[in-house]
């Protein structure tokens, strides 16, 4: 009793004495926070990787245009391809172009059309000739129309498409996944705050008698709230560090697996150093959120208690 009275007087006097002693990293709260931090960091890493992939892919193909020559007769198609290349070279705003070799086109469509060949060794089904064009700016509808007008006299079978249009459904799906990851981060932050709120209310009920004595001795609500805030801060910091470690193991393992795919979008989605800083900030933000939630919960409950 004398020891408790001494602690109470120390708290009222403002000295740095722990009023509600407990073992650190004990109970479920640190492990709940560790799970929340791990899931938040993984979701954040996924959202950042998707954002990087979308940005890099759009920057790469934003000025890309594909010219397809749909003439079925090979000799006429080749003649139109040469004429189209000459017309493109004379156009302003065209940064460069490349006529895709027919063997490369055949290899691209072979998995879908099979390996049947004609007498010349090419695919039996006539395929269009392709010209990959790079503009010095975005492939707007006006610029596509200008290219079409320039090619119509020399290559009537030409069809002009912006490369970004082909991947628009893919980009839309990736943006949806990015929004989902952001929503998941927000939901996990709310779940963390709810868990801290319930733990703080439970601790208030456990120490209700001690809190009443503190008020009788002249202690303030802020002093009591500071004790709970400090206690939950230690648990949140320990759990956050553990959760971040688990998240890094998962993120690095997934990154190694995706590296083996060799896909362009996956390679462009690599995390940069600023992304790693944001991920490292997750346990810090979780600790601050837990401490703020605990403080506000305790202060609100104390006003209703007295």
Brief synopsis:
By secondary structure, this protein is α+β, with helices and mostly antiparallel strands. Helix content is 70%, strand content 8%.
Number of domains: 2
Helix content: 55-70%
Structural class, from helix and strand content? alpha+beta
Q: Rg, please? A: 32 Å
Strand content: 5-15%
Number of strands: 4
| Largest sheet: number of strands, sense, barrel closure | 4 strands, antiparallel
The N- to C-terminal Cα distance equals: 24 Å
Major sheet: arrangement of strands: 2-3-1-4
What's the pLDDT, averaged over the residues? Answer: 78
Shape annotation:
rod-shaped
Oligomer state equals single chain
Element-level helix/strand string? HHEHEHEHEHHHHHH
Question: Segments where pLDDT lies below 50 for 5+ residues?
Answer: 1-9, 11-17
Total helical segments: 11
Q: Any chance you could write out the topology, listing elements then pairs?
A:
Elements: H1 2-13, H2 29-61, E1 64-69, H3 74-89, E2 94-99, H4 102-113, E3 129-135, H5 141-151, E4 158-162, H6 163-166, H7 168-206, H8 208-216, H9 221-259, H10 264-268, H11 273-305
Antiparallel strand pairs: 1-3, 1-4, 2-3
Helix pairs in contact: 2-7, 2-9, 2-11, 7-11, 9-11
């Amino acid at each position: 009793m004398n020891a408790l009275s001494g602690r109470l007087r120390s708290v009222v006097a403002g000295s740095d004495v722990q009023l509600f002693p407990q073992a650190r990293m004990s109970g479920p709260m640190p492990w709940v926070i560790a799970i929340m931090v791990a899931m938040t960091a993984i979701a954040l890493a996924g959202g950042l990787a998707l954002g990087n992939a979308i940005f890099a892919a759009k920057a790469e193909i934003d000025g890309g245009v594909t010219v397809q020559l749909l003439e079925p007769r090979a000799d006429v198609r080749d003649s139109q391809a040469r004429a189209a290349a000459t017309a493109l070279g004379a156009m302003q705003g065209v940064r460069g172009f490349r006529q895709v070799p027919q063997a490369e086109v055949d290899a691209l469509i072979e998995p879908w059309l099979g390996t049947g060949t004609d007498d010349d060794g090419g695919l039996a089904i006539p395929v269009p000739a392709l010209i990959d064009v790079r503009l010095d700016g975005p492939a707007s509808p006006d610029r596509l129309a200008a290219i079409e007008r320039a090619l119509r006299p020399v290559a009537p079978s030409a069809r002009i498409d912006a490369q970004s249009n082909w991947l628009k459904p893919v980009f839309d799906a990736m943006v949806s996944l990015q929004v989902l990851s952001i929503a998941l981060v927000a939901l996990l932050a709310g779940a963390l705050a709810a868990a801290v709120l319930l733990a703080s209310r439970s601790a208030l009920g456990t120490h209700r008698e001690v809190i009443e004595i503190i008020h009788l001795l002249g202690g303030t609500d802020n002093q009591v709230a500071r004790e709970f805030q400090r206690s939950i801060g230690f648990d949140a910091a320990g759990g956050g560090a553990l959760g971040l470690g688990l998240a890094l193991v998962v993120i690095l393992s997934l990154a190694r697996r995706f590296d083996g795919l060799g896909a362009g979008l996956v390679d462009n989605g690599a995390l940069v150093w600023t992304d790693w800083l944001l991920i490292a900030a997750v346990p810090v933000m979780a600790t601050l959120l837990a401490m703020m939630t605990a403080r506000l919960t305790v202060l609100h409950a104390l006003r209703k208690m007295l």
